[in-house]
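Troubleshooting log. The previous run stalled partway through. Resubmitting the same two chains, unchanged.
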Amino acid sequence: MRRGNVGRRVAVAVLLLAVTGGAEEALAQDAGNPDSFWRASAYLWFANIDGINYLGDSTVVVGDTASLHASFAGEIQAGRGRFRGVARFSTTSLANSGPLDGPGVPNGTEIDYDFSWTTAELLAAWQLGRFQSDHAFKLFAGLRYVHQGQDLSGSAGSYSQDWLEPVAGAEYFVEMGGPFWVAIDGDLGGFLFGSEFTMRVGAELGIRVAGPVHLSLAYDYLQTEYGEKGAAYRWDEGVSQGWFFGLTVKR
Amino acid sequence: MSAARGLRALLAILVACLATAWPAQAQEASQTGDRSGLLGLTDGAFGMAADDSPLTGTPPLALRPLDPSGPIPLQPASATPAPLPQDDNSFCCDRTHFWPTMGEVGILLVVPWFFNRHVSDDSTALVTFDSWKRNVVQGMEWDRDAFQTNMWAHPYHGAMYFNSARGNGYDFWQSSAFSWGGSFLWEMFGEANRPAVNDWMATALGGVALGETLHRFSTMIWDNSATGFGRTMRELGGFLVNPMGGFNRLVRGEWTKVGENPDDRFPRTSAGSLRLGYRNVGDGGRAQPSQGGFFSFDYLYGDAFTDFGKPFDAFEFTAQLYGDNEKQNIGLAHLTASLYGTELKRTEKADHVFHFAQHFDYVNIETLETGGSSLSATFLSRWELSESWNLHTRFEPSALLIWGVNSEYSDFTLRDYDFGSGAGLRAHVTLRNASGANVGLSYLFFWQHTLNGAVGDHLLQLGGVQGFVPVYKRMGLGATWFLNVRDSYYRDYPDVFRRNPEFRIFAAYSFE
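Second attempt completed without errors. Output:
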């Protein structure tokens, strides 16, 4: 089968699913459900990373101005009534070259690196307001585990850092009419327990394509400040962000 | 990042309107019961919630009859109830209108771009496919715009997105999505420079807050049953306050259509005040203290102790104008609005309620730049001490979502302030007399961790006392004294400590 045919058939299938889904309401699964609820989402994440990585006396500037990097993220929610448990996972990496600075390093030196950033979150969410409406406003809090790895080329070595930090935030979900829905969320974290501080904001536009199956497009921005001045490992002005293409099944 | 540059003229008109054209009175409102603000209206340099307002929770005010000689022609002379037409007397909207909304959002994206590109010759408007691709790939950063642009003009632009949807039948929450979406599209594709995460957040969050406020104000101004010159003036007034709502009424032919008003046109209770006075800001280490006049518009919409229905069924808004003694005419604006509210406990002598509230704060004066969007858990209580005296308390732990504080060392960002997030606490105690007299204490604390700028932490504190006494009918006199404290702890620079006492005296005119 030629690639063009495949692409065309996928496009037609998605269009048909969208049209089919458009005939129904999105259902208020997220918008307040007094009964049991679960949701599982898998995301293909086209990510970018920026930041300054302090490794002892040396610094590596991490970033890529030319391309996004295919990565993966996922989320599972389950709960009943106003309470919900949420588990999130995301991982991305960036292999590139960037400026290296440090004692004895000539100006203009660049080094190849492979920087990886993985997060896993366990959150408890609580919904405000009434059930069975077209929207839901949730507050959540929990813990975020972070692993960062930095592999430098040659004899410069490999480094890694793990930490656990608190996180608290809010999310609202709203049905836009027909099969469309929108979710906005953000959180603050760290507070010197783990990282110095984190701030995240994201938005997701979803469409119910058939039954419990939804597709979505999202954007997410997470900034992290890790490590005090002079610490052996620091991640300064560190940002992971990018576009998420999601497949969600929910009840 | 200068999303609202093309809208500044409109913004100026709006502000003038806010200050002078307040609005249709709650003639349809049932004015019953004691009432209290979520926040208490504001004074003090970063002015969060000094409970000095003559209107805040003053029982007799809410019970007073309307004064037809008020400063605003609230009920046009020609407002004799008009006969309803036989058909087509319905007003928008029985359903949502997606494509008109998207069209208006498109206009709000294209018009500022066109203005920047072809009128002001702004290089940021030179968008190309390459700039779009770069923005998509590189993602967001923090921008360098002035405090006024980022923290005032952008939220106003966000309000336009919001009210495009609100005026096409979408509810509060749905309209919020358009504010987020419109802002995102502008950041990604409306400018050649990289999108700014601070713009996205400030435009969306502030846009929701200002948008719903302006929607509520314009709804009070518009009177579907009015005719003639008065009707025209109301339509124009509402248009100035809420341009997108007014635009929608215009294109739907509702400027001349006569029919019934929506049931929720007015809140059950409302109150406002206009204050004119003198302020003196002491030297806290800055170049020169300032003194001069100020004008304040304060409005209390709904009753936070009883109105729990929908978002913004109870909110407070204040805006203050300063003279040449300050760097900006609009030096201060605050909004606190209930998103959700519920009773905690009611007894014969005490009421306790909880609100999850959204705040919009903007302070741009010589001694301090600060503000942004925040959310708070708001606990309100009032105790009836006697027939004449009540005690009101308010306690609000807050999360600062997007926030800015002026900084001595952020020149390298081409700004004079740092961006960040953090937490806050607002606490107030006010003793109130049935005559309208009140005296209160306030304490506010904000911690901002800098995410972009001179890395460090800003600690802001405001503490003070305020008092007000009614003098004659709707007139009264008041005074406030506050101490504004900013302690900035920088990682790479010497710490900075500022102390600015501020004293005010004022005369107030109250209205419902």
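Takeaways: Chain B is about 25% helix and 35% strand. The mean pLDDT of chain B is 84.
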